[in-house]
Amino acid sequence: MIERLNEFLYDTKGIVLRIAKGVSIVSALLALTLIVYENGYHLSPEQSTEVHKGMDAIFTMFCLVYFVRLLYSFDRLDFLKHTWFEGVIVASIVYVGLSRLIFGHYPLQAFFQNVDYDHYRHHYWVFVTLSMLYLVGIEFVRVSRYLNSLALKPAGTFILSFIVLIGIGTGLLMLPQMTTGAGGADFLTALFTSTSASCVTGLSVVDVSTYFTFKGKLVLLLLIQFGGIGIVSFATFFAMFMKDGVGLKQQVILQDFLSSESLSSAKALLRKIVFMTLTIEAISTVLIFFTWGREMVFGGFWQRVFFSVFHAVSAFCNAGFSLFSDGLYQQEIRHSLLLHVVIALTIIMGSLGFSTVEDLFSPRMLRERMEKPWKDWKLSTKVSLFMTMILVFVGMGVFYFLERAEGGTLSEVEDMRAIVGAFFQSVTTRTAGFNTVNFSALRAPTLIFMIFLMFVGASSGSTGGGIKTSTFLLILTSALATIRGKKNMEMGNRSIPQEMLGKAFSIFVFAAVYILTIIFILSITESNLDIVSVTFEAVSAFSTTGLSTGITNELSVQGKSIIILSMFIGRIGTLTLALALSSRVVSTNYKYPSAHLMIG
Fold this sequence. Notes:
The protein is an all-alpha fold and 600 residues long. The chain has a domain at 1-149. Helices cover 67% and strands 0% of the residues. The protein has helices at residues 2-10, 13-40, 45-72, 76-82, 84-103, 109-114, 120-144, 154-173, 187-198, 208-211, 214-229, 231-239, 248-258, 263-289, 301-316, 337-351, 354-361, 363-371, 379-404, 415-429, 444-456, 469-483, 498-525, 531-542, 557-572, 574-581. It is globular. The N and C termini lie far apart (85 Å).
């Protein structure tokens, strides 16, 4: 009987599934529109009722499409196996719909009324919204598989994903319910904040703690999370669980984004990255929750949870956004040294790079090294770890001695707080953006040294910015090799290919030229501001650090636009931008006669 049914459906399968796909996409767009409308605007009860009716209709369409796909997938058990969670949501929707249709009320409504719980309807619509977002996300993942058909380079697709994320964030932050004031954020403020969050920078032209509502802060949290790992990475991760799998172009994008050695290793690393990220952020959330300090008073348990989650995600993604007006220099948590240490360690985990964290801490690698003590870390892991340690402790020492002197920001605090403060600022300067001291009071030599740390930045394949520690080490090693007259460059008993060295120099030159250019422009547009502060702001934006001496909200429209562009270019990387815009040479199978130039 099943075979006859399949034979009967075979001739119409193609056109029916195409229609179902179109209906799904249209339904997803309508669902997003209704969700944004309900959560972004202040609606009357009548308007909310109409929105809920529309949601019910869209849910019905999703259910019908699911059953059509099930009917036309001739291996139906396999289809249910691959779409089981989607099936659970559809079954829940059908159950709720039948309950309301037959009995005239929501499931368990009588039970909640008997126990005097009046918020069941609100929580039901929270469940509806989350379910709808999941179904819309599934459609987005399916659409993302068509990246292979786009006539874009992998670097171009990566850039486009960030542009889309920034655009969505800008639109959401402009909605009335996102801000505490009337009318929502203006376009430039929304664009600046969305870019800063998506590019995990942390600079802001408004006080995030008072300017945005809970919904606005939730949007910022999602932008930071998606921006830290990459929206394409999330889409690819969920695509792994779908029947059609991951496209080749998606794997190439991941290889570039994660600094992976091969396509297969990038795909294998991605699954670990998502679980690794969520695990580290969860552990950090718990630790932050219990280390806020006695002086910090919250409005309730869930507010404390949200603050903990927000700062954990912001720290791991090296974003630097805080829900306090003065950052971690806020009076209530200024002396919570254990909290500062937890956040600093979370920042370090995010700045090491995903492949490094996997090589250092994954159970499989730890087990292998216990069984085979001779097995060493990868060279990239050594570079990331040792450069991080050197920069952190050198930065800590310089910051401590410069600011511990008379008149410095650490001159009048106790020894332990001075040590932890110097350690924290050394860690956060390398692209995280939190502060536990008053940055407007820092000395010029301290700011100049911090500019150097921001320029170097975090490790490759991490959530941080800068030119990366490996790039800096390659350039330094190459310079020393040239001085010593060595023809080949070695590192860790390995030869470094000339192509890799050329890439490092390209990144350095692009970054240096761009920063000098924007400093020159900002010195013209912001002539009323101190040049050291302007330079600090420019490097902070490009390196996606997010530290500021307090001049961000004083910038002109032109200055803010330049900072927005700098945050974007700093996040996607100058080399990625160059690769996306350039054309490869037709052939390299030729060589001109050697020339001699005077150098130095």
